[in-house]
Amino acid sequence: MTIRLTFLFCFITLAGTAQQGTTTPYLSSETAALSKYWILFDSKDQTSSPALSQQAYERRQMQNLSVDELDRPVSTAYLSRLKQVGVEPICQSRWLNAVSARLTTTQCATVLAMPFVKAIQPIDPSIVITSVGVPNGSSEAQLAPVMTQIQAPDFAQAGLTGRFVTIGVIDAGFFGADSANALKHIFVREGVKQVRDYVNDKKTHGNLFHTLETFSDTHGTEVLAAIAGSDPIDNIQYGLATDATFYLARTDQGNKEFRGEEDNWVAAMEWMDSLGVRLINTSLGYAKGMSNPKENYEPGQMDGHTSLISRAAQIAADKKGILIIVSAGNEGDDRSWRIISTPADAQGVLAIGATNNRLWNRIGYSSIGPESLPYLKPNVSCFSLYGTSLSAPVITGFAACLMQANPKLTNKQLMEIIEKSSHLYPYGNNYVGYGVPQASRAIAMLRNQPIPTTARSVKATGKSFVLPVTTNEPLISVFHKKDATHVLQQEATKVAGGKLTLRRATNEKRTTVDLKKEVIEVFWE
């Protein structure tokens, strides 16, 4: 059967279904004379009520999480004082106790002198959004193979389709989502509950789906389909959470544009938290800047706490019980960067890399985890030919199935199950994390059933070692590592006569042999 990905449109499906009046793509202008900043406050109004819905209160109660100071809104008195000096806040963050605003140099000095202002931090207008489109200019994607890789039929057999699970999607746009064949089943049952556009707040619900401002406005639609897509015409399933419900937020306008929209991302996260959303997919990442070196991120700052969005993500994970699933980034082939983007660097989020389909090792563009981090990134990976922004939603659907099976699982418990279900566990690395999650193993853990032992270790000496293996694969993936998790190089190695010859690289201490159904860790002495 020819695989046909109907939600990567090329404007074939959408041309006949989008409303008339669709505009020509453009990039909205910003006031060049003003720079964008976070203004951080020192305290909150203790008389204000938490900005939470009843559903959010119920979620906190179910997870034994308290309503705390972070849930109180930003002080209205502080906002009024800013407006008195001509500063108009753009976004408000109750978690960071901050607002974003465009300030002149004079206004910066005025605001910083206010007694309730703790600090001002620039939002770099030159941050490059991690590539969210289709790398290498390809126009046809093939996501169906990933469903086989993660054992989607096992979830289907168990009746797990993400039913009763609410998912938030923070992305660059959802143009044509309500008319894409792969998503019609969601809209027919009114599965999209609310949408919010933080880029253009004048857009209505319908306009978000029917007005194209940039070519990347289809990206969120592709992501949504990778979470929950199903094509009834060809009977092809693209995502696992086909029965989930959704809240959608557009926070970024454009692909590789020079703009800072981190504040939109934080605002969307807090909006979803206030509605009681427990699972959020964000296939946006912030990597390197190009125009103002003084304000750019550096690779060393992908440390989980330098960027405010990583701090916000960690608050969401630790304090609000939200499972955030983030694309690791597509900078793996960029020698000036290579590593994951923020907020994938936050310890509490589940960062997703991308693998090849055949060998399950790292596909070239997939960003790697920084060696300086004391924890493993990416956490897990799965196949995506066209970007980690399309591997992350696959794992979001995986998580939704687990949440349906046991709604009482915390976000940290869910992360643990997903990691332990992955095919390389416990021998993860900074190329693919713990590897590809396997539905059969995850279901067994949910049922407290024993999991077959698929990992073993051996010791080796010298500069080469012959390892007997049992596999039908002519080529297998091997990770040469300088320690427990950091890869020196990966390679595809031939198996001859049931034996694998390993040649030790300089400074190599450990080698992971990936047989898919078994993982062997070689310790060099």
TrEMBL record:
Q: Which Pfam families match?
A: Peptidase_S8
Q: Which residues form the Peptidase S8/S53 domain?
A: 164-435
Has keyword Lipoprotein?
A: no
Q: Where is the active site?
A: D171 (charge relay system), H219 (charge relay system), S389 (charge relay system)
Where does the signal peptide begin and end? 1-20
Recorded hits in PROSITE patterns, A to Z, give:
SUBTILASE, SUBTILASE_SER
Q: Which domain of life is it from?
A: Bacteria
Write down the InterPro entries for this protein, in alphabetical order.
Pept_S8_subtilisin_bacteroid-2, Peptidase_S8/S53_dom, Peptidase_S8/S53_dom_sf, Peptidase_S8_Ser-AS, Peptidase_S8_subtilisin-like, Peptidase_S8_subtilisin-rel
Keywords for the protein's UniProt record, in alphabetical order:
Hydrolase, Protease, Serine protease, Signal
Which family does the UniProt entry place this protein in? Belongs to the peptidase S8 family.
Q: What is this protein called?
A: S8 family serine peptidase
Q: Which organism is it from?
A: Spirosoma soli
